Amino acid sequence: MPLVKARIDSQRGPVRPEGIERNDLSEPVRVSSIERIELEPDGQHMVVHSDRSTLTFHYSVFRELLAVLPAAIMQSERMLQRTPHINFAMGCEGWELGAIDNGKSLVLTFRLQGGADVSFCLPREQIPPMVDALISAARLVQIPAHASGPLQ
Q1: Alpha carbon of 123 to those of 40, 98, 103, 117, 149: distances in Å?
Q2: What digits encode the pLDDT tens for the residues 74-121?
Q3: Residue 33 CB coordination number (10 Å)
Q4: CA 10 to CA 58: how far, in whole Å?
Q5: Which of 4, 13, 31, 85 could form a Cys-Cys staple with 50, CB 3.0–4.6 A?
Q6: Where are the domains of the chain?
């Protein structure tokens, strides 16, 4: 069950723990907890310090990690709970709207639990169908008043 795209970038090698050569890895490095995550001062690498090792990721893979983590969480939940219909959803503490390209695109930013912001850019043509879908969904469920609003 692959979680990433089938085509691998041949210019980029796999991410290795610091201080371990590729030939020394007899099995995958397993991380069961993360002690801290930091960005190097030049913004080129994210350093993840785990319970057993340190992993360094080049900035060019950040978006791929963002895409693969929710898919991995969902697949893991489905496998562990033996419920193929489970979907993954992050909790949202707030949201904000903006526009770019002289109003040609909408930027929708969500503040996730834990303080991270994730933004999506949508062409203006997709806004009316999205509004219709949200109105339809709002009719199906009770939405608490505190569940929406701008980011602070």
Answers
A1: 34, 12, 9, 20, 22
A2: 888 888 888 877 777 788 899 999 999 998 999 999 998 888 899 999
A3: 7
A4: 15
A5: 31
A6: 1-89, 92-147
